[in-house]
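Progress note, sequence design subtask.
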């Protein structure tokens, strides 16, 4: 296996054992297919894609501390390849190369931005990337060691914020099928998301929040305050599952959930789950600044769907545009700025396997 500008970690001699399965988040436990191969059949090639700058540099420091445990837990049964990203989008290229070379799993080590890039590396030219070897026994799985600022995706899976737990999950290697969403980037190229895509106020807040990551989770509060200053609720048109266009007046934010949380722990699409083959779309209309103060706790604990001017629906695809085009409505997916409306968001047909 090639090294992806990486440091290969020599497997350690200490033996490790496949233990009892850990409990899964209930939704996944119900849906999962057990795809674990025999641990003794061959050594698994695991590629760890580490963003050393994640969480304002904390990811890199935590990763160094984690390595001895990783080596002792997995080194005897897996080939471990560590690849540090050198900048934005590098994780995409590392992932594509690893899949083509037949990695058993590519594991994102960092926050939602790193996971987002690794997920995008699973695709190329609108199709899943495949192994060079057509006889390969099984597809490359996605893994995650959440070590970011928000790490919102891991919350949907009910994971504790403990990287050692994540390593135990990787050691067990139990795979589940999950879905991802697809939209288009600024130049029309396909762009994949695993967590939440959203637009207008929340997307603008995310755009500003990314400038304040050095303040940890407080960045989301600062970003929201900054976004509010220039915010106006906007009339929009929406087409769900290729039906008719519908007009939604005074839209504050529209969130397309493949998973439940965004913005550092806000349970915005509480019924979404990546194992289901549709999105939960939550639309906030005519919200004033004081509505957020009065209802913020409900947004955080996911009880906002009964609040006035909040609606929720299921969709496999949703197209959103302005009534009067201004080209200034922010769009983001998985917390990454993606340009401005109009956009279409769809569940990607087919699934990927994730180590859960
Ligand atoms: N070596 C690097 N130097 C600077 N930025 C990088 C590097 N590698 C990756 N990045 C960028 O850092 C961004 C943020 O990383 P990441 O998501 O891991 O951490 P975070 O933003 O702190 O966490 P979260 O997204 O969960 O809030 C990624 O979108 C990625 O493009």
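Output:
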């Amino acid at each position: 296996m090639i090294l992806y500008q990486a440091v290969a970690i020599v497997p350690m001699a200490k033996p490790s054992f496949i233990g009892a399965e850990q409990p899964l988040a209930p939704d996944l436990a119900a849906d999962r297919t057990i795809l674990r191969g025999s641990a003794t059949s061959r050594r698994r090639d695991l590629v760890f894609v580490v963003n050393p700058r994640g969480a304002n540099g904390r990811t890199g420091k935590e990763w160094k501390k984690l390595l001895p445990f990783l080596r002792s837990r997995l080194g005897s049964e897996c080939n471990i390849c560590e690849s540090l990203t050198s900048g934005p989008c590098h994780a995409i290229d590392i992932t594509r190369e690893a899949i083509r070379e037949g990695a058993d799993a590519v594991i994102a080590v960092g926050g939602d931005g790193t996971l987002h890039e690794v997920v995008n590396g699973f695709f190329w030219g609108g199709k899943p990337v495949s192994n060079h070897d057509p006889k390969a026994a099984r597809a490359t799985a996605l893994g995650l060691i959440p070590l970011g600022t928000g790490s919102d995706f891991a919350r949907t899976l009910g994971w504790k914020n403990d990287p050692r737990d994540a390593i135990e999950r990787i050691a067990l290697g139990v795979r589940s099928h999950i879905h991802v969403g697809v939209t288009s980037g600024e130049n029309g190229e396909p762009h994949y998301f695993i967590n939440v895509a959203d637009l207008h106020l929340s997307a603008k807040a995310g755009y500003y929040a990314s400038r304040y990551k050095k303040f940890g989770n407080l960045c989301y509060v600062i970003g929201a305050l900054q976004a509010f200053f220039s915010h106006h609720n906007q009339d929009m048109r929406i087409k769900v599952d290729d039906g008719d266009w519908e007009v939604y007046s005074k839209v504050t934010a529209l969130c397309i959930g493949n998973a439940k949380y965004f913005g550092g722990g806000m349970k915005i699409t509480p019924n979404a789950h990546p194992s289901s083959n549709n999105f939960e779309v939550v639309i906030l209309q005519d919200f004033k600044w004081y509505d957020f103060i009065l209802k913020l706790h409900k947004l955080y604990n996911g009880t906002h769907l009964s609040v006035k001017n909040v609606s929720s629906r299921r969709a496999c695809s949703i197209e959103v545009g302005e009534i009067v085009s201004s080209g200034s409505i922010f769009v983001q997916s998985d917390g990454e700025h993606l340009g401005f409306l109009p956009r279409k968001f769809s569940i990607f047909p087919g699934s990927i396997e994730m180590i859960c």
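The radius of gyration is 20 Å. Work on this subtask will continue into the next period as scheduled.
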